[in-house]
Amino acid sequence: MIDLRPVGHVIGLLVACLGATMLVPMAIDLVYRNGHWPIFLNAGAVTMLTGSVLALACANASTGRLTLQQIFLLTTAVWVMLPLFGAIPFLFAPISANATDAFFEAMSGFTTTGSTVFSGLDEMPHGILLWRSMLQWFGGIGIIIVAMVFMPELRVGGMQIFRSEAFDTMGKILPRAAEIASQISWIYVVLTMGCFLSYLSLGLSSFEAINHALTTISTGGFSTTDRSFGAFQGAPEYVASVFMILASLPFVRYIQLVAGTAQPILRDAQVRAYMGVIAVTTLVMALFQMTYDGAALEPSFREAVFNITSIISGTGYASVDYQAWGAFAMVVFFFVGLIGGCAGSTCCSVKIFRYQILLSAIWAQVRRIHAPHGMFAPRFEDRRVSDDVLSSVMAFFVLFVVSLGVLAVGLGLTGLDFVTALSGAATAIANIGPGLGPVIGPSGYFGPLNDSAKWLLIFGMLAGRLELMAVYVLFTFQFWRA
Fold this sequence. Notes:
mainly alpha
């Protein structure tokens, strides 16, 4: 039987820390004198007390070493419990949110999906807006650590190919996680500060700048206005595009860069492929606008690079309603969102390295057909891809497609139309943010959906953020018997 106490200890500590951070939006509400600060004071007190009691109750079982089963359970439990407590301020704030909406918003924030059920953001209390942004920032740094430390050990979706770059943590999960987190954290903070200062220099207010810096570096996409980034068109779009790309690159490469070697990031196959996809799709969409809509060069390029980068990185900002560009643009944005950024970044979706391995496997098979007696093997970054990694990647692709289909059918059964159901499933599983259609498109929001659809999307966001298998394995009898 699995000993749940080590998992409970870690969860308790994280919940207590989350409660302490609620003092920040409380302070913001005090500064703006809107009278909503008691919400965060009470929510913070409850969260800190609950987390502390749980951590103390399980402290005697904390050994610093976790079994594989405990790692699976901890990984999923973190992404359930923190949004659960993070939803408390939404539930009691004067924004008319029921329990489903509060948990949906918190889950969307912590998974950095960016889908929102709230409208009227321009009049929303400052503390609530900042809390939404903070949840995404926490989720962004959290998923980097999970991707670099836990996922390689769980052998999920081919992530084990990056084990050596995650500092070989087998058997030493918690101590090594702390060491890696300390290196990542200050890089994450530096990028956030750089983004904040850049926004500030371009005319955003300090409150707008810090909120959008938090949600840009986390590739989350929550905004302080219903117009999303449409309220900041111009130079801020270029700045946002640069920082979304920076947040989409492997953070282990930044650690190596700071250590004095730039070659790894320059030679990284993921980075080169990711930048290539952004360049090609941006060029296609800019030319499409200029040819068919008669748009000028600079606005066409700016809107194309910003919105393509936002969707492929899973950030989910929208500066325009790109559905108005026509059916071709909608198809491009749908499939671009299913690509994703690099492993070990704040990005989501399938991720570029899996497509590279898939294409390499297909090319190896083509060569075998032409030369049946030859020895051909898939390669990634000039290394042979092991059968273990290849089968894991293939399993992920199959599971991703099946999950997308099942979720879309489930959403259709709740009464949603085809476009809303399919794009809603894709935006949840891939953690993109906006969907397509008049309801959940880039100019809409998820509030009008029924509660059944929202709970399906909540599960989709959770499973997609944790690479599917890390969540699905918890529903097998073999997991709990072992």
